[in-house]
Amino acid sequence: MTTMRPLIGYVRVSTVTQGRSGLGIEAQQETLARFAQAEGFELVRVFVEVETGKGSDALDRRPQLAAALAEARRKHCSVAVAKLDRLSRDVHFISGLMAHRVPFLVAELGPDVDPFILHLFAALAEKERAMISARTKAALAAAKARGVKLGGPKLAQARKVAVATITEAASAHAANVLPIIREIQKAGASTLRDIAEALNARGIATARGGCWYAMTVSNILERA
């Protein structure tokens, strides 16, 4: 009889409103439960946090994550999250967590992703946020060049239009790629990494003309 390996779960939402409503918490818990069952783990405890992930002192302000790390060290096991951004969207914060020498597992990425790949995904997410910010600033600069005054309500409206334009383009690309992803899934691809490799093998580019990774596939599926 195979012995189930212990696993500590960590769930985080970023606002008090989300915490009170349960928005996002149940979905993360269900994802962790499915992951544990599929990979032969026993989810012995789940720590739930309601706190932002921003700031260099983020770990100091996240006592449940600190408790999860301590429990994992006590049980000599890993900490699992549903998505990497439930730990943080900051690559330096992810690096700091690795210094605690507690292995982390990310359900959406599968059980075999090593720390280097986690750093890579965090860096990609950080780069994506920077690119969105840069495109928004460029759209605002273009509006200003056309004579649009960007003070007060007009600035807010201009930002809204810029973000909407970027979001619309991303959604259109997702709509085009999603049927291909579904076809790949039907062909037997079971993980995000498998799907990414299949898209790359077919020569299909991301919205920015780059290669696919598990995280970019996850973003498309979330939009769906």
Low-pLDDT parts are none
Mean pLDDT reading: 77
Radius of gyration: 20 Å
Number of strands: 4
Helical residue percent? 55-70%
N→C terminal distance: 40 Å
Strand content: 5-15%
- Globally, the shape reads globular
Coarse structural class: alpha/beta
Describe the structure.
With 224 residues, the chain is an alpha/beta fold. It is 57% helix and 12% strand. It is built from eight helices and four strands. Helix 4 packs antiparallel against helix 5, helix 5 (115-145) crosses helix 6 and helix 6 (152-186) packs across helix 8 (214-223). The longest helix has 35 residues, at 152-186. The chain is globular, with a radius of gyration of 20 Å.
Write the layout of secondary structure elements.
Layout: E1 5-13, H1 16-21, H2 25-39, E2 41-50, H3 63-75, E3 78-81, H4 91-98, E4 104-106, H5 115-145, H6 152-186, H7 192-201, H8 214-223
Parallel strand pairs: 1-2, 1-3, 3-4
